[in-house]
Amino acid sequence: MAKQTINIGSSANDGTGTTIRAGGDLINDNFNEIYTELGDGSTLAISSKSQTLSNKAIAIGSNTVTGTLFRVVDESSTESTIDVGERLAITGGTNLTSTVSGDSVNLTLNSSVTGLTSVQTETLTNASGNLLVNSATNITEFRGDGSSVEGQIQLNCHVNSHGQILKAQPHSEGVTNTMLLPKGSNSTLVSEIATQTLTNKTIGVGQLTCNTRAYTGDGSTVAFTVTNGQTVENVLVFINGVFQRPTTDFGISGTTLTFGTAPVSADVITIKEL
Questions:
Q1: How many whole angstroms separate alpha carbon 110 and alpha carbon 16?
Q2: Of 147, 141, 153, nearest to 171 (Cα)?
Q3: HSE (CB half, 13 Å, CA atoms) of 14?
Q4: Cβ proximity of 202 and 215 under 8 Å
Q5: Distance between CA atoms of 106 and 90, rounded to whole angstroms?
Q6: Fewer beta carbons within 10 Å, N or C terminal of the chain?
Q7: Residues 35, 41 contacting (CB under 8 angstroms)
Q8: pLDDT tens figures, 102-118
Q9: pLDDT tens digit string along 147-200?
Q10: Among the listed residues 261, 214, 220, the one whose alpha carbon sits nearest the alpha carbon of residue 240
């Protein structure tokens, strides 16, 4: 109800004001409303009375405020409540440092990262250029699983449906070494199993795996025996250490290698079947 006011008349004792009984009733009505609003109707109990305040500024330091302030939840849906007066701690961890400056909480990844066991994303990207890795040793290490799988790098095709893997030697080899990439202009690495044509290479003949046949010239013989299936493309022929040109200086048919000109007497003939 609205506040009820006792009429005190226009002047003292002019008989126009509220009677004493009526005035007392107005006073009772006003106090009844106060006791009902701030208590149980007969006793004041402001501390236990539920009220909704709006447009109020509460000085936390000068008042006691209780109850749940807010809730926090992690990715596993584990929830915790932060009550009024409690602190929410944002702590760092391995290689991560947290600092407070004014109203800001700063999380800093240490410049030297060690012991990082997991990353919460499967893709690292750099929208403005190459992804740069800058370590003190200039080495980026891809580790094995500690049991049976070696460290590996996979380079995918442009649609990421195929990939080629660079893989370390197994632990049983016990090797640590450096492989230098080819210098000069663009090139392709030589494969152990692919068919490739090599140019501008120096090959140490003595290191080739082959079957070697040795003959001596007599000044008239032009035909010499080779293993069946050999061609001019997979044999190396030398006379006194001088390389003989395939097809031009000799030919092969079946198990016979034939020189265009008979090696002279005492010439050392070496045939390496690759």
A1: 86
A2: 147
A3: 8
A4: no
A5: 10
A6: N
A7: yes
A8: 888 888 877 655 555 55
A9: 999 999 999 999 999 999 999 999 999 999 999 988 888 888 888 888 888 777
A10: 214
The token pair at 66 is 């209780």
176 within 8 A of 234, measured Cβ to Cβ: no
> What confidence tier does 218 reach under pLDDT thresholds 50, 70, 90?
very high
- Give residues with Cβ within 8 angstroms of 132, minimum separation 6: 126
Q: What is the pLDDT of residue 160?
A: 92
Cα–Cα distance between 216 and 96 in angstroms, integer? Answer: 78
CA dihedral 27, 28, 32, 34 (to 10 degrees): 20
CA distances from 252 to 5, 53, 210, 214, 226 (A): 133, 107, 17, 16, 8
Q: How far apart are CA 244 and CA 213, in angstroms?
A: 15
Which range is least confidently modeled, 7-11, 143-147, 195-199, 255-259?
Answer: 195-199
For the residues of the chain, what is the DSSP string, one character each?
-PPP-----SSTT-S-S--HHHHHHHHHHHHHHHHHHHBSSSSB-GGG------S----GGGS---SEEEEEE-TT--EEEEETT-------BTTEEEEEETTEEEEEE-SS-------S-S----TTSPPP---TTS-------SSS---EEEEE-TTSS-EEEEEPPPGGG------PPP-SSS--PPPSSS-----S----GGGS--EEEEEE--SS--EEE--TT--TTSEEEEETTEEPPBTTTEEEETTEEEESSPPPTT-EEEEEE-
